[in-house]
Every structure is written in structure tokens, then in C-alpha cells.
Give the backbone structure.
Amino acid sequence: MTRKEFDLLQLLAAQPETVITRDRLMQEVWAGSWSRRTVDTHVSSLRAKLGSREWIVTVHGVGFRIGQG
């Protein structure tokens, strides 16, 4: 797992069942050096490494959360 993937997972896991907005993820994990696609790419990679897409739930138009879909 890369450092950014770890930071992303840690941020999501710190508030289970809470939707974390894309803007907050980008600001806290990438500190201003990012693109919209960056978050999607890292979430996809992290889901693959966790072994299931169900661990990270996409809330369309808002962001992501840890938990059941």
C-alpha cells in the first residue's frame, strides 16, 4: 500500500459510516496537489488491495465512506 493510499484509508476509517467529501479528501491527503481523477484512481487501487469494492462506498456526487453499501 502506498503512503497516499494509507492516508486515504486512515481518513475514511477514522469516521466509519460518515461520508467524506471529495474536496476534503483532496485537501487532507493531497494538500492541494491533485486532480479529480487522482481520488478515483487511488480509491480504485485501494479497493483492489483490500480485496473487495464493498469496503469503500461511493456516495455519488458527494464522496466516499467506509462501510456497507
